[in-house]
Structures are given as C-alpha cells and as structure tokens.
Amino acid sequence: MSCLFCQIIDGSIPSKPIYQDDECYAFADINPQAPVHILIVPRKHVASIAHAGKEHNSLVGHLHWVAAEIARSKGLVEGYRTVINTGEHGGQTVEHIHVHLLGGRHLAWPPG
Question: Looking at the annotation, which residues are catalytic?
Fold first, then answer.
C-alpha cells in the first residue's frame, strides 16, 4: 500500500515509536509544532474521520484514550491539545485518520 502511515506502521518507513497496541501505533511527528507532538494512528486504514462509520466508534475513542495515556506519561499536567484534521481544507495531509497530540507549551486559540 502506498499510504505513508501504513508504511510507517508496517516498518517500511522508520519512525520513533511512542506507544503501540493491537489497534494503533503512536510515533513522534517529524515536523513537530510543539515540544510534544505525537501522532496516534490506527493500524486499520481509514482515510479520514469523514470516512469513519459507526463501526469505527470504539476505534476513534481508543485513539483519544491513547492520547490521554501518552499525555499523562509525558507529564503534560498543564494541558495539551488533540486534533484530527479532516480533508484538504481541514489541513489533513495524509489520507489516514490520525490524532495529533500537542503539548509542552501554551497553545493559543484560535489555532489558525
């Protein structure tokens, strides 16, 4: 498969693993936008949250639970942000659903 994240998950493209289980793989973003910037990606390819069906409810919840677990392990006690970009206008650059976990600095609002 030509999907960048699928290739990272299968090990074809190297990454810095942060967390992994049967449902997802989390790794450091190669272009971090905060001191902590981790991507949490499901092992099952789903193009975007817009493509997620009711059968993906538990998967989407699991991705957020993993983000919270990683935030706790990284000591992000002052707060953090989780983001799912969807589609070109939403800033999605890889067509594989993923949660961005950002923290380690004050995150302004609105984001951009």
Answer: 98
